Amino acid sequence: MDIVPDLVTNVCPFFFSFFFFFLLQPTGYMENSVSYSAIEDVQLLSWENAPKYCLQLTIPGGTVLLQAANSYLRDQWFHSLQWKKKIYKYKKVLSNPSRWEVVLKEIRTLVDMALTSPLQDDSINQAPLEIVSKLLSENTNLTTQEHENIIVAIAPLLENNHPPPDLCEFFCKHCRERPRSMVVIEVFTPVVQRILKHNMDFGKCPRLRLFTQEYILALNELNAGMEVVKKFIQSMHGPTGHCPHPRVLPNLVAVCLAAIYSCYEEFINSRDNSPSLKEIRNGCQQPCDRKPTLPLRLLHPSPDLVSQEATLAEARLKSVVVASSEIHVEVEHTSTAKPALTASAGNDSEPNLIDCLMVSPACSTMSIELGPQADRTLGCYVEILKLLSDYDDWRPSLASLLQPIPFPKEALAHEKFTKELKYVIQRFAEDPRQEVHSCLLSVRAGKDGWFQLYSPGGVACDDDGELFASMVHILMGSCYKTKKFLLSLAENKLGPCMLLALRGNQTMVEILCLMLEYNIIDNNDTQLQIISTLESTGVGKRMYEQLCDRQRELKELQRKGGPTRLTLPSKSTDADLARLLSSGSFGNLENLSLAFTNVTSACAEHLIKLPSLKQLNLWSTQFGDAGLRLLSEHLTMLQVLNLCETPVTDAGLLALSSMKSLCSLNMNSTKLSADTYEDLKVIPPSLPPTLLPSFPPSLPSFLPSFHPTASKYWFFALWSLFSSRKAVPLADKAVNGIMAG
C-alpha cells in the first residue's frame, strides 16, 4: 500500500509534463511553417459577435487567422509581419538592379519606411543599411555621382546608427578618392561624431576606427587643412571647460595611435629584426655591436673600432633602399674612440664628469624618411595630439594614455616624430597637477618613460636639456620621494645636471645644491666638482652661499645641548617655530609638541634638522601630505607621531611605510581609508622587543591582555578611533589584526 503514493509522486509529474509537451506540438495545418515570402497580405479583422484581436494572413491556398491576447500584441504582430514582408520585397528588388534611377528611388522608400515604422528595435534601421551595404559591395562599377546619391539617401539612418563594416569600407574609399566632396562634410561629420561619442571598443569594430581615421585625413586635405581639423576637435570637446562625453578622448587617441602606427607599418614589416628601444637608446651611449639585418652604409668608420668582418660586410652592403613605396631608410654608424676615463696613478678620484660631457659619445643614428602620404598622415595626427594636450580637462587622461609610450620603436627613432611630439611632453611638464606630470615617469621599474627619452642622452632629446630641466623642476615639486628622486638623478643624470648648471640653468643649480644639502653625493671629488660648477655662475654662487649659511645654522642647531622636551604655545606659526629653532642649540631635543598650533607642511623643512627627535605631536594642525613625505625621508628614527585631526590623506600616509622605527601612530579624524590601512599593516618594522606601543589609560580594559607577539603590528588605530562612528570599521579591523597576532 505504501508503494502507490511513491508511484504517483514520482511518475505523475513526468507523465503530465510529457502530455503537456505533446499537446504543444504543432498538428494538422500548423505542422508546416509559413514563410514570410509566401504571405500575400496582412489584415486586421474585427466584426460583431466574433473573437477580438484577430489577424488574417493571406497565403497561397487559403488564409491563416491569428488571435492575440490584447490589441497591443495584435498590433505588434501586424506591424512586424508587414516589416518582414516589405524587407523581403526590397531585398529581392535590390539584389538584381537594372536601372540605378529605380534603385535610388527604392532606397529612399526603404529609408522612409524604416524611419516611420512604429516598431522599436535595432534591426529596424540596421536591416536597410545592410541591404544597401551588400548592394554597394556587389556593384563596384558605380560612378562617383551615384555613390554620393546613395550616401545622401541613407544619411537619415546614420544619424542614430553605426554603419555596418562593409558600408564603413565604402565610406573609407569615398574619403580617399573624393576628400573634397561635400558629402564628407555634410553627411560623414555627424556619423563620425556619433562614433566618437558612443563607441566603447574599436577592437570589436575596427572598420569604424578606420573610417574615422580616413574622415579626419579627408578634412586635412581641404583648403583650410588643419584649421578644419581643429574646429572638428573643438566641436567634439564642446564650448565648456569640461567635455561632457567621456568616450571622445580615448577614441580620438586610439585613432591617432593607429594612424601613426600605419605610417611606419611598411617599414616595420620590411625589417626582419628591427632594433629594440633599448638598443636605440644605448646607441647614443655606446657603439652598436649587433650585426645589421638590412643594407647599411658605414660613414667615416674608425679603423681602430671596425673589425675586418664589418669592413667586408661594407663592401657587400649598399646604400639602403627598403622595399617600400612609402619609406626610405638610411642607417649611419659613426664611432669615436672613447677617451680613457681613468684617474691618475695613485689617485682614487673619479673622472671629471664635465669633461666626459664634452666628449661626443659614440652613437648609432637611424634616419627614417617617410613618403609624402605617410608624412602628411603623421603630421596630421601628431598635430591632433597637440590639440588634445591643450585642453586642461583632457590632459590628465591623455597623459595616462600616453604614459606607457604606445608608439612603435621606429617612430621613436624618427627625429621628426619625436620633435613634433615634444610639444605634448612639454605641456605635461608644465601642468602643476601631479596626476599629469607624474606620467612623465615610467609605468614600472626597468621600463623607459618620457622622462628618460627626452633627457640628455635619450633617443628623443634634440635640445640642450631645456625640456629635461622643465621636467625635473615640476617633478621635484611634487614627487613622492624627493630624496629618492635626487638619488636617481645623481646615479643616472648627474653629468647633464652639472652641464646645465654650468650654463646657468637655475633648476639644475637648485638640484645640485639639494644634492649637497641632503648628502646625496658621497665621493669628495664629485662634491668638489659640484661646488666648482656652482661657483662658476652668478646664480650658482649665490645659491651655494645661501646653502653654506644654512649649513652653519644647521650645525649650530644640531650642536649638543638644549632641552629634551619642547612645547610651543597654541596658535604658533611656521615663522615662530623657525625663529625659535634659530635661537640656540637643540641637538638633544627628543620630544616636540606642536599641538593646536597653526603650523603647516612648510615647517617640515625645520623639523628634519632635529637629529634626536623621537616624538612629534601635530594634533589639530594644518600639517599635510607634503610635510609628511619630507618627514618620512629624513626622520627615520621617529618613534611616536600624532596626526590626530590633521588634513593628511592616503597619499601622504603611504609614505610612512619607510619609517621603520615608528611604534605609535595616532590618525584619529584623518582621511585614512581601509585600503591604506591594509597596505600599511603588512609592513612591520624592525623594532626591539622592548619598544612596544604604549596605550593611554582610557583604552578598554581588554587591550593590555594582548599576546606579546602583537608588537609586530606597528600600526595601530588608537583609542580615539572608537570615538568616531565613521572610523569604527577601521578600529574593528585594527583590533582584529592585533587579536589575530
TrEMBL record:
Single GO biological process annotation from the record: in utero embryonic development
Regions crossing the membrane: 7-24
Keyword check for Oxidoreductase: no
GO annotations of cellular component type: cytosol; nucleoplasm
InterPro entries: CMIP, LRR_dom_sf, PH_CMIP
Any matching Pfam family: PH_21
Span of domain C-Maf-inducing protein PH: 25-94
Keywords: Membrane, Transmembrane, Transmembrane helix
Official protein name in the record: C-Maf inducing protein
Species whose genome carries this gene: Ursus maritimus
